[in-house]
Specification:
Number of helices: 14
Strand content: 15-25%
Distance between the termini: 47 Å
CATH architecture of the domain at 8-78 and 162-238 and 319-368: 3-Layer(bba) Sandwich
Structural class: alpha+beta
Largest sheet: 7 strands, mixed
CATH superfamily of the domain at 8-78 and 162-238 and 319-368: FAD/NAD(P)-binding domain
Radius of gyration: 24 Å
Oligomer: single chain
């Protein structure tokens, strides 16, 4: 006997999470068979702190019919190879984490082992010189990758910087054209069922009652449904991610946009710089236990390039996640489900992943417990993997110039991250789980960039003669440099990609 399908979805909250969810679900469900209503106050809602995606966003865009050229034009987007980390390992040191491979595997052995071998016996070039995305990023150049695996231009991917507010507007327009009903109002109360504790409806400031079957909480940090009504509980990760405040400001551009984000560490946190076509997004993520708001504001303003376009705005939050992201007939998506910060531009990805898994485990009107259980298990694992990757940036540091960095160096880390660090430090082995966001190259970039240098390498890398290896790496490096120089400047690629008269 077939179960009755869910015929009514209510999304509480707009912003990036709400309108991404609305757009995706409207693409999946016919408006006649399932109504989708989104409730948000006047305006577009709070945009994400994050103004960048990761390469996995391409899959989401393709699946739900979002054209990259249209998106770039609508959001003043630029291309993004990755992030430059300044002063993280030590003051004065910088490295790049980009979405690209280092060198190439030789006789079934990972490139890092050959690089480590040469480093131990010779003056090896920086490993970044063997990643086309790193070299091109530093030169301010960009071109789309190709599919031909024989080409060096197939060894990297890319993402986007975008204006989060304009992104919300873009998604809202798509969703409303697909039949999503926007209700401009504010939720003041949540009505629960007497026996099962399911959400039956939400009461609005206007006095109206909006009922539904599936409720999606995109209300932001407060978690109006998942926490305010259902009292689900929250796992606090501030012990590993020591920040709880952010000051955000926009500035004028001072030159052509670079194809990467910049993250600069300081005594009590870190600052980001996100280049868009028409301006720059900036922010200072910090711990209020180590610096006060006024001092933090001074640090932010001192580190800016270009004239202010907005006044600094303060956000307070608690890194961590809900104990359950799906409870009863409520699914929390976005910062209502958890928050890890914008350091590796994962916020939009986590929204995307939550939507994808919700569709995969979408319930019938009986809401089988197995659906929620499977969803929660997979999202918990995904969040933990991203969390550990971000923790690595703080833990693996040589800085000890402030109480903040002393704490980061000495803090204990989750067991699985400790295992990853031990394995890599011993022989350059990268341990990963299936389905993780960050691949081997990502972990390599941050391990080596943060100064975690393995004591040994895979002995199979010794099968090549020393002179042969030296020539092989020299040729690889020269080929990559030539390929980077052949790329067009980033600005030119942006202009071509935003030209409606140029075909994809």
């Amino acid at each position: 006997m077939s179960q009755r399908a869910v015929k009514s979805i209510v999304i509480v909250g707009g912003g990036t999470a709400g309108w991404m969810t609305a757009t995706a679900l409207a693409k999946i469900f016919d408006r006649e068979s399932c109504s989708i209503r989104l409730i948000e106050p006047d305006g577009l809602g709070t945009a994400s702190l994050d103004e960048a995606t990761v390469p996995a966003a391409h899959e989401f865009n393709r699946r739900f019919g979002i054209d990259e050229r249209e998106l770039m034009r609508a959001t003043n987007a630029t291309f993004r190879f990755g992030t430059e980390f300044k002063d993280w390992r030590a003051i004065g040191h910088s490295y790049m984490h980009t979405a690209g491979k280092f060198g190439q595997e030789i006789e079934g052995v990972g490139f890092q082992h050959y690089w480590l071998r040469q480093r131990m016996t010779d003056d090896a070039a920086p490993i970044e010189d063997f990643a086309l995305s790193c070299v091109a990023a530093k030169k301010g150049r960009f071109q789309h990758p190709v599919d031909d695996p024989r080409s060096v231009y197939s060894t990297y991917s890319y993402a986007l910087h975008l204006d989060a507010t304009l992104y919300v507007s873009f998604l809202r327009d798509m969703a409303e054209k697909l039949g999503v009903e926007r209700i401009e109002d504010e939720v003041v109360d949540v009505h629960l069922g007497g026996e099962d504790g399911f959400i039956r409806g939400v009461e609005l400031k206007s006095g109206d009652l909006v009922d539904g079957e599936l409720f999606i909480d995109c209300s932001g940090f407060r978690g109006l449904l998942i926490e305010g009504a259902l009292r689900t509980g929250y796992e606090d990760w501030r012990g590993w991610l020591p920040f709880d405040s952010a000051l955000v400001v926009q500035t004028e551009s001072t030159g052509d946009p670079l194809p990467y984000t910049r993250a600069t560490a300081n005594r009590a946190g870190w600052q980001w710089r996100t280049p868009l076509q028409n301006r720059v997004g900036n922010g200072y993520m910090y711990s209020s236990a180590y610096i006060g708001e006024e001092a933090a504001r001074d640090v932010l303003l001192d580190g800016l390039e270009g004239e202010l376009l907005t006044d600094p705005e303060l956000e307070r939050f608690k890194p961590g996640k809900r104990l359950k992201m799906w409870r009863r007939n409520c699914v929390a998506i976005g910062s209502s489900s958890g928050f890890l910060g914008p350091l590796e531009s994962t916020e939009i990805f986590l929204i995307q992943a939550a939507i994808t898994k919700l569709i995969e485990y979408f319930p019938d009107a009986e809401f089988p417990a197995a659906n929620a259980s499977a969803y929660n298990r997979q999202l918990d694992t995904l969040y933990a993997g991203v969390r550990d990757f971000i923790i690595l940036h703080f833990k693996a540091t040589q800085r000890d110039d402030s109480n903040f960095w002393h704490y980061c160096r000495e803090m204990s880390v989750p067991e699985e991250l400790a295992l990853r660090m031990q394995l890599f430090a011993s022989r350059g082995v990268v341990y990963r789980r299936n389905g993780e966001l960050f691949d081997e190259s990502d972990w390599l970039a941050v391990f080596l960039g943060q100064g975690v240098i393995p004591e040994n390498y895979d002995p199979r890398a010794d099968r090549i003669q020393e002179d042969q290896l030296r020539q092989l790496l020299k040729g690889m490096r020269e080929h990559i440099d030539q390929a980077a120089n052949a790329m067009p400047p980033h600005r030119e690629t942006i202009i071509a990609s935003c030209d409606p008269g140029v075909s994809a």
